[in-house]
Amino acid sequence: MIMKSLVKSAAALLLGGVMVAGTANAAEFEMRQASDLDDLLKLVKERALFESAVNKDREREFIQKKAQQQSMLNSAKAERTAQEQRSDRLETQFEENERRLGQLQEQLDTRLGSLRELFGVLQQVAGDTVGVFEGSVVSAQFPGRGAPLQALAAKMGKSTQLASIEEIEELWIALQQQMTETGKVVSFPGTVIEADGGQTATTITRVGDFNLVTDAGYVNFDPNTQNIVALARQPSSRFTATVDGLQAASTGTIVPFAIDPTRGSLLSLLIQGKTIEERIQDGGAVGYVIIALGSIGILIALIRMLDLAMVGSKVAAQAKNATPDTGNPLGRILKVYQDNQSVDVETLELKLGEAILGETPKINRGIAIVQVISVVSPLLGLLGTVIGMILTFQAITLFGTGDPKTMAGGISTALMTTVLGLCAAIPTVLMHAVVSGRAKSVIHVLEEQSAGIIAKHAEQSGKSLG
Length: 466
Prior knowledge:
Blueprint: H1 2-21, H2 37-112, H3 115-135, H4 146-156, H5 165-181, E1 185-193, E2 199-207, E3 211-214, E4 217-222, E5 227-230, H6 237-248, H7 265-272, H8 276-282, H9 284-319, H10 329-339, H11 345-363, H12 367-399, H13 405-465
Parallel strand pairs: 1-5
Antiparallel strand pairs: 1-2, 2-3, 3-4, 4-5
Helix pairs in contact: 1-2, 3-4, 3-5, 9-12, 9-13, 10-11, 10-13, 11-13, 12-13
């Protein structure tokens, strides 16, 4: 039993080795189990023969591949040698080309001579001219003028490229055209980009290299987009009136025209200035109150001036007529005298004084209101100034003093209310003085005529007593 177990164990170990070794080619050697030691020995011998054959095949294949690899190595070395020789030839050719290029460059410099400086100036002029054309108002009528010159400048930027005679003539013609067109006032069809983004086809009048105008007023040429754009709003009427005159002028006539020598920059700044309405809005609620009070005061003063003028003319006419007319103050006073001719002097004096006192409020009606408004208006202006300064200091507290625009609103309110207060006070003060003087003049006539009546009555009473 012990021997049989040892045979099985050895067979199993050998079988395991045979199975591992036989995995390379299972079709050539069939695996089987040994039944006893003789059979095991036979299997071992067969396996040894099999492995010997396999090893010989491997050695033969290795020798063949070794020869092939040696051939490939020899080919690679030969290729490397050929490439090294080619590299040497190319390096020699490169050095020769460098030397030849230096000789040709020296030959080119010698032949060019002063022409190189000429072409340098030509390149600079072409580049500068492109910038001039892009910002010129003339380009609104002749778009795309700078493209050929820009190509010329780019071409001459390369050291191997030179300008031809035709290209030099083209630059000269472009410069001559620019000089000629800057002295013309011409009209041409064009498209204006409106403020809302719409496009309007219209006739555009170009004034030299300064301004563009249409029937609607001034327009600007935008160098960035090369478009004609409408202004957000037109300048004041004293400028737009010259546009109307230019549009209506015939050929050969001389008309006044407001020119912007900065090609639209001053015009853009001019329209940014605030109008009267916008400045009034800066005054706020206090400003509107001042305007309302000033308007009321001026209206009352005008009405009283007209009324006192009519009353003065009637009083002057009544002074020349002995028949009383109750339609004027002096006539009513004379009527009081006629009704009281039989009374004594003292009583008549009181009666006439009472009549004058009754006419005085009618004559002075509204004058006190004008005076009050003339005093209150500058005070309201001062109030608006204080409010504006409060707003300014609030802005400074919140945002600091880094940006002046944050303080502009309060300062505008402060200054505008002061201006409005003075504008309301100055005319009301003057008109109050005029109205008050006319009222005093009428009252003076009444008092003068009353004193004359009393003196005449006293004289008549004295004669009757004598």
